[in-house]
Amino acid sequence: MFLYLSKLLPLFFYPLGLACISLVVALITLWKRPRTAAIAITLSLFLLLFCSNAWISHLLVRSLEWQNTATAQIPNAEAIVVLGGATKSAFWPRPGADLNEQGDRVIYAAQLYRQQKAPIIILSGGRIDWRGSGTSESADMANILTALGIPATALVQEPESLNTYQNAVNVKKILQSRNIKQVLLVTSAMHMPRSLKIFQRQGIDAIPAPTDFLVSAGEMQELGNSPKAAILNLLPDSSNLNEFTSALKEYVGLFIYSLRGWL
């Protein structure tokens, strides 16, 4: 139940959900309380305009993604841990499991393995039932990695985890059983601050190896490199709204996990 509520309730506090609630309030109060309706419509418009411009979304994303950027070459470790959330199940018309927008973590893990950063890759992730059946994310990632030439003997699957906390708890059991002391933790850069804190709370010596950066130094410079660009980046864009919501989701996750003592 906690897992379901942790996914459902925050939706009403994200920009699109709040805007929808405000518009419903406006619709209900339009005739009898037009002032209230006007306030609700104004709030909806403000939320959508504020949260969907590139300036705000990029700054919020950067505040998470740039916390664990590599200052030197990534060191060797005893294992590479890849967190789930990177695949789509192999349902028709897909010819097989696909990588989603966070799929860079799977490719990056393969690159680190080929660079001989670690001898094994631990793949952690189950499949939430209300998001579709099918094989676990760990199995999907394993299939993709073997198709990329990574030997199956180098892959260890953990198919039970349904959130980041469970990732850390279940991976810890694998590490203890294999007497592994240090790992490279691979996940999306935005997800890394929360993931790293959770793994460290479990006593795991995890070295952050973030990937899938949405905001780079070049993109930050492009925001205001000319008056035209500065104005265009103030205009609403659905991709910016998605980035803002994803970053806000991480901050909500940090708050909830902190309340539960998982950080």
Main traits of this protein?
263 residues, alpha/beta, Rossmann fold, 5-stranded parallel β-sheet, two-stranded antiparallel ribbon, 11 helices, 7 strands, globular, membrane
Polypeptide structure, described:
Residues 78-253 form the DUF218 domain. This protein is of the alpha/beta class and 263 residues long. The chain has a domain at 72-208: HUPs (Rossmann fold, 3-Layer(aba) Sandwich). It is built from 11 helices and 7 strands. The strands form 2 sheets. It has a 5-stranded parallel beta sheet, sandwiched between helices. A two-stranded antiparallel sheet has the order 2-3. Helix 2 packs antiparallel against helix 3 (34-51), helix 4 (54-65) runs parallel beside helix 11 (238-259) and helix 7 packs across helix 8 (192-201).
Amount of helix:
40-55%
The CATH topology assignment of the domain at 72-208 is Rossmann fold
CATH level 1 class label of the domain at 72-208? Alpha Beta
Taken as a percent bin, the fraction of beta residues is: 5-15%
Report the total helices. 11
Write the layout of secondary structure elements.
Layout: H1 2-8, H2 15-29, H3 34-51, H4 54-65, E1 79-83, E2 87-88, E3 98-99, H5 104-114, E4 121-124, H6 137-147, E5 155-158, H7 164-178, E6 182-186, H8 192-201, E7 205-208, H9 217-222, H10 227-232, H11 238-259
Please give a quick description of this structure.
This is DUF218 domain-containing protein. Pfam families: DUF218 (PF02698). The chain is an alpha/beta fold and 263 residues long.
